[in-house]
């Protein structure tokens, strides 16, 4: 799947905020799904974010070892994307 255009990220409700806020381990244990939905409830780019969340992340590119080894694709990111825990 081709990565989506990322220009939408500048219009996201979370733009410029501490990204750790969207880490799954920072959600309340008693209602993680509800908390995830509330984080993104008023965001105008939920569709683009959800579409982008479907693209697997290549960890080797993030850590800079992609030129040395085969891609290591991760389907789930452990973060909230478009109000859903991914």
From TrEMBL:
Residues 1-28 are annotated as: Disordered. Residues 7-24 have a biased composition (Basic and acidic residues). PROSITE patterns: 4FE4S_WBL. Pfam families: Whib. Residues 13-74 form the 4Fe-4S Wbl-type domain. This is WhiB family transcriptional regulator. It comes from Nocardia panacis. The lineage of its organism: Bacteria, Bacillati, Actinomycetota, Actinomycetes, Mycobacteriales.
């Amino acid at each position: 799947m081709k990565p989506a255009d990322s220009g939408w990220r500048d219009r996201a409700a979370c733009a410029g905020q501490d990204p750790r806020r969207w880490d799954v381990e920072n959600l309340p244990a008693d209602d993680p799904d509800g908390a995830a939905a509330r984080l993104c409830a008023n965001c105008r780019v939920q569709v683009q974010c959800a579409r982008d969340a479907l693209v697997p992340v290549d960890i080797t590119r993030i850590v800079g070892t992609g030129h040395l080894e085969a891609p290591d694709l991760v389907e789930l990111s452990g973060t909230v994307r478009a109000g859903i825990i991914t």
